[in-house]
């Protein structure tokens, strides 16, 4: 299969080629990925590869110049913010070093595609990558092996081109990232916000808030490590509300069937960029939506936020593992 194609369609993000490869077998995947990486090596184009450990080992054996590609971890990590961190950092390092293009091969863990709760964070990350790399000379192929039908629809909506056994085709279902994010349906756990909360605190003392969050995670059956992560996540969002928001700051929590939902609301305008915190912020970046929101995305399963005339709300959900 040839990977060369005509210029991007008008809907493609300038400077970025974000393709998806939908394959029926590992051999089909290798027939696309290996030439893609071999061509990069031939023309001196750096490449970053983030695949599951077993598949990465096979690809490393098949490519002609494995030393020309950087194989990073994260291909088996369920949280997309953590999974893509090293990949995006490696791409940025190559570009700072003067690379004219960087090629990326990545995948979404198969278990994360099997449920709405697992797939939703990845769907949002796929949309966000169109903005993260929008003006950069990055060509990425996101590899999917026989994904479920619901996932296929989102793949077409978040990638400007799709590779199959028959070749490359533009995605006519591509949706601009902001519209894609705005149109996402709430998960069942998020709908709990329409019921009375199990936890409600107005301008809470941080220590009392952390204790309240921990008690709800214990009721949901969360282990100590995951409970610690959620306490940290909610604490970061609360701190942002106190420092950058407008009082009062309201913390609410719900628990059901091994899941928890927390919301933090203040009367301010908050932030409007739905992709804030998807990638690690600069070390000196300390504004609302930078370090704190990134940490929350790392620690919780899904983080969303919305501004309304009467305030700004951040919503965090997690399922006990």
Q: What does it look like?
A:
- With 321 residues, the chain is of the alpha/beta class.
- 38% of the residues lie in helices and 22% in strands.
- The chain contains 10 helices and 12 strands.
- It has helices at residues 26-42, 53-62, 80-83, 85-96, 116-132, 149-158, 177-182, 206-220, 224-244, 291-299; strands at 16-23, 47-50, 69-71, 102-107, 138-145, 161-164, 167-170, 199-202, 250-256, 259-266, 302-308, 311-319.
- A 7-stranded mixed beta sheet has the order 3-2-4-5-1-6-7, sandwiched between helices.
- β6 and β7 (167-170) form a beta hairpin.
- α5 (116-132) runs parallel beside α6, α8 packs antiparallel against α9 (224-244) and α9 (224-244) packs antiparallel against α10 (291-299).
- 44% of the residues are buried.
- The model is unreliable at 4-13 and 285-289 (pLDDT under 50).
Describe the structure in brief.
With 321 residues, the chain is α/β, with parallel strands linked by helices.
Largest sheet: 7 strands, mixed
Count the beta strands.
12
**What is the distance, rounded to the nearest whole angstrom, between the alpha carbons of the first and last residues?**
41 Å
Mean pLDDT: 92
What key phrases describe this protein's structure?
single chain, alpha/beta, 321 residues, 22% strand, 5-stranded antiparallel β-sheet, 7-stranded mixed β-sheet
Topology:
Layout: E1 16-23, H1 26-42, E2 47-50, H2 53-62, E3 69-71, H3 80-83, H4 85-96, E4 102-107, H5 116-132, E5 138-145, H6 149-158, E6 161-164, E7 167-170, H7 177-182, E8 199-202, H8 206-220, H9 224-244, E9 250-256, E10 259-266, H10 291-299, E11 302-308, E12 311-319
Parallel strand pairs: 1-5, 1-6, 2-3, 2-4, 4-5
Antiparallel strand pairs: 6-7, 8-9, 9-10, 10-12, 11-12
Helix pairs in contact: 5-6, 8-9, 9-10
């Amino acid at each position: 299969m040839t990977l060369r194609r005509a210029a991007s369609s008008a809907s493609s993000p300038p400077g970025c080629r974000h393709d998806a490869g939908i394959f029926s077998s590992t051999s089909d995947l290798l027939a696309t990925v290996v030439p893609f990486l071999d061509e990069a090596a031939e023309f001196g184009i750096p490449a970053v590869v983030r695949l599951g450990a077993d598949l990465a080992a096979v690809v490393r054996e098949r490519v002609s110049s494995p030393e020309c590609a950087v194989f990073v971890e994260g291909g088996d990590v369920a949280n997309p913010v953590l999974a893509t961190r090293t990949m995006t950092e490696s791409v940025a390092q190559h570009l700072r070093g003067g690379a004219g293009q960087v090629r990326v091969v990545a995948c979404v863990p198969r278990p994360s595609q099997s449920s709405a709760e697992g797939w939703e964070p990845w769907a949002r990350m796929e949309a966000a990558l169109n903005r993260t790399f929008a003006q950069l000379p990055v060509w990425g192929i996101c590899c999917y092996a026989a994904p479920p039908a619901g996932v296929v629809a989102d793949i077409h909506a978040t990638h400007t081109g799709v590779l199959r056994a028959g070749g490359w085709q533009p995605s006519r279902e591509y949706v601009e990232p902001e519209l894609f994010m705005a149109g996402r349906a709430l998960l069942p756990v998020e709908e709990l916000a329409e019921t009375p909360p199990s936890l409600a605190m107005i301008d809470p003392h941080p220590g009392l808030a952390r204790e309240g969050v921990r008690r709800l995670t214990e009721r949901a059956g969360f282990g100590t490590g995951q409970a610690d992560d959620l306490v940290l996540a909610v604490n970061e969002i609360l701190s942002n509300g106190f420092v950058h928001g407008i009082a009062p700051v309201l913390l609410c929590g719900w628990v059901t069937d091994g899941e928890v939902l927390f919301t933090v609301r203040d009367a301010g305008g908050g932030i409007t960029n739905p992709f804030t915190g998807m990638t690690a912020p600069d070390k000196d970046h300390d504004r609302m939506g930078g370090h704190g929101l990134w940490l929350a995305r790392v620690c919780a399963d899904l983080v969303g936020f919305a501004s309304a005339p009467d305030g700004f709300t951040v919503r965090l959900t997690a399922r006990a593992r």
